[in-house]
Amino acid sequence: MDINIHPSWKNQLQSEFEKPYFKNLTEFVKAEYNTHTCYPKGDAIFNAFNWCTFDAVKVVIIGQDPYHGPGQANGLCFSVNDGIAHPPSLRNIFKELESDLDKPYPLSGNLEPWAKQGVLLLNATLTVRAGAAGSHQKKGWEIFTDAVIKTVSDQKQDVVFLLWGGFAKQKSKLIDPSKHSIISSGHPSPLSANRGYWFGNKSFSKTNSQLERVDARPIAW
């Protein structure tokens, strides 16, 4: 696994790359990619960090696992490549966006435009075996991405963290609430959304209100 990560992040995370767990993780990922179909493509594993530099981070959205279907995962949580059908969670995100900001439902499920504006779209696990959700969990990725969240919390100010669902909410312990805003809601998955835990959370307008409060440019969602 090549660590093709933006220099701004490399400066912040260099000590993680040198730890034994990360060396073991690298060996595991290389072996998996050599022997199985895995997602995202190798050069897209660190896309969340390359589309959104450390200095640019204003918002963090935390997902769990990359999509495990062909052509879907592009290294940004909840995002899919252009021309790929929108998975159910992404459809619900876009429906909430429609009602919250009175915007038309987006044609593309590619969230790179969000990332370029300072939204870190971070999955807790950055790789997955095709057709096998969760197959690369508990191999070291979570240690790394927890360090990412803590680094953002420690080194930055006035970041908005969107914690969608129980898994993401567990990450609140890594975030200093005296320096940052935390906006929590249910997960956009159909199971959660259909029980009334997702729709109407207004994550997008609340985020922009927080950014404007600290004189930061709002996100053009």
Provide an overview of this structure.
It is a single chain. The protein has 221 residues and is α/β, with parallel strands linked by helices. 38% of the residues lie in helices and 11% in strands. The strands form 2 sheets. A 4-stranded parallel beta sheet has the order 3-2-5-6. Strand 5, helix 7 and strand 6 form a beta-alpha-beta unit. It starts with 6 loop residues before the first helix and ends in an 8-residue tail after the last helix.
Keyword list:
DNA repair, Uracil-DNA glycosylase, single chain, 221 residues, cytoplasm, four-stranded parallel beta sheet, two-stranded antiparallel ribbon, glycosidase, EC 3.2.2.27, 38% helix
Entry summary:
It contains nine helices and six strands.
